[in-house]
Amino acid sequence: MKNKENKQTRSPKIGRKNSIKRLERWQTMSLLMVVYDFSAICFAWFAALWSRFDFRFSMIPEIYLAAYQRFIIPYAVATILLLLAFRLYRSLWRYASMSEFMRLLAVCFLTGVLHTVGIIVLVHQMPVTYYFAGTLLQLLLLGAVRFAYRFLRFEVRQRTRQSEALGRVMLIGAGDAGQLILRDMSWVEHPENKVVCIIDDDPNKWGRYLEGIPVVGGRDDILLNVKKYGVNKIFLAIPSATAGDKRDILDICSETDCELKQLPGIYQLFTGQVTVAAMKDVSMEDLLGREPIRADMGEVFRFIHGKRVLVTGAGGSIGSELCRQIAAHDPEELIIFDIYENNAYEIQLELKANYPNLKLVTLIGSVRDSRRIFQVFQTYHPQIVYHAAAHKHVPLMEDSPCEAVKNNVIGTYKTAYAAMVHGCERFVLISTDKAVNPTNVMGATKRLCEMIIQCFNAKIKAGKADEIPQLFTHVGYENADKDGTGKVFQDIKTEFVAVRFGNVLGSNGSVISVFKKQIARGGPVTVTHPDVIRYFMTIPEAVSLVMLAGTYASGGEIFVLDMGRPVKIDIMAKNLIKLAGFRPGVDIQIAYTGLRPGEKLYEEKLMTEEGLRKTENKLIHIGNPIPFDHDRFLVELQALMDAAYNNRADIRDQLMAMVSTYRPYDAPQPASGEEKKAG
């Protein structure tokens, strides 16, 4: 045991001695560098003297030679010490840059002055050219060995690029950002990419060179030069370009088989983050071709700050983003309400982690349950409600129309009624462009939701809130007018508003996510019809619009987003395939399956009867309400609820009677049930 203990106690000491004696590789290289520097300094000043006398040693006067010999050794030692002081023996010379060069220049300048003064004062005055030539030669010899390694590595890398040609890059943009990208690719470790040509719309730059790379033309010359230079990657470096210009350029680029990347924005140019590493993949959002909605979130903050806010359907794509943005605006309390506990739990965990001081309540329940929704309002008294709970999947609602009516129409009615009689200030309904001239059950039910909002608003403003019936599927304690006096309907000030927008990129079940999954599986990508077009927006844009609607509302409005030009789903599918690095019709097939039940070729933002009014945001408009008989509507709504809960097969007929613009669409199916494939 003692022997083992002795071995264990001795071994660390032996290890420490070995580690002390052993030099690191960089230390060995530094010692060799000291030896080289000493020799180079001595040679530099001798060469300066030698060159002064035409490189003929015999012609050098003895007095000059003796002065050199007496002074050079202490001078070389002093120079080595100064190099040490400037940390020039600890630099990573494979990454030598301007910082190392400037420090070396400073050392050579200081020692040049020291040599001149020292040899004159202490030894003997030398020829004037000796001082200048010696300083210059010393700088060249000391710098050459330090930067030679990097230069050789650069040359090898350049030759490797030319021989292997792994990534032949077309750079779009010959401005400041393009120049920074070029420099980054020249000096940093990017052997996989080589810029072969540059595109810029400024004719003054055509035929000229940037960092040795030719500017070959404008955007109209992209396709020609992709083929001419064998380009397989395109980098877009125009961070200040408008969304429309980016879209037009990317549309052209998407016709090639090249990999596309772009600099995210002008912010990177100001912060000095213009590097190849900062380039990001081009996304579908970049191809929408419009500027993003820029909401005045300060106004939203003032509206939400210190308020109790309820979000129904809070676990969905729009609902969860609403919760995130509301949580960031310091509400008094945020109430999450959803029927699906998994989604509600996920957003609860996220908000608790990101906003530990947020007063958060997470509730499970259905908007169809009037007793539950009354209980929520009686307990928490929310001042603002964002109603995002709804069934939204068009084909599924075609197969279950009564469920669409129960959840979308009756659920909205019950939630709106509970909000009205419990002192809620604002009720914001999340609607859809499918409510315009609907051809499907989902769109028809969302149009009925808009009509409910308009009806509630009209009755309240007319002082007739008591005429709005409370719809029951069962009679319970949630009866609003329990005492029968009607006091609950007095002084109601709830403002109701609807927000209408198109398809949301990245939402659950969106066409983009479906396409990406199909591409990941190797295809085919299924498109219902080659001529189908849709409006798209991002989730943050949609939520900004919803929150702005809450601040702009005066009651009864339908807010509409100017979503730019519609996008052809067929082109979107092809672009997604290209963005994934594949060729449509070659690597990934596209299959046309025919319009699904309830689908139409295009969506509209407004009905022809509606007009538009501007708001403070030029991309957000208000649709003027379409007049209808509110009393008759409320009677028909009671009958519609009864039909839905009795699961009547003729529910569509009642929808058509209530929504005059609803026309069910019988979609044609592909011939013989086979998929038509597109190349």
Keywords:
679 residues, alpha/beta, Rossmann fold, 9-stranded mixed beta sheet, 21 helices, 14% strand, disordered N terminus, disordered C terminus
Quick structural summary:
This protein is of the alpha/beta class. The chain is built from 21 helices and 23 strands. The chain has 3 domains: 20-156, no CATH class; 165-282, NAD(P)-binding Rossmann-like Domain (Rossmann fold); 297-658, 3-Layer(aba) Sandwich (Rossmann fold), CATH 3.40.50.
Q: Can you walk through the features of this model?
A:
There is one protein chain. This protein has 679 residues and is α/β, with parallel strands linked by helices. The chain has 3 domains: 20-156, no CATH class; 165-282, Rossmann fold, CATH 3.40.50.720; 297-658, NAD(P)-binding Rossmann-like Domain (Rossmann fold, 3-Layer(aba) Sandwich). It is built from 21 helices and 23 strands. Strands 10-9-8-11-12-13-18-22-21 form a 9-stranded mixed β-sheet, sandwiched between helices. Strands 3-4-2-1-5-6-7 form a 7-stranded mixed β-sheet, sandwiched between helices. The model is unreliable at 1-20, 265-276 and 667-679 (pLDDT under 50).
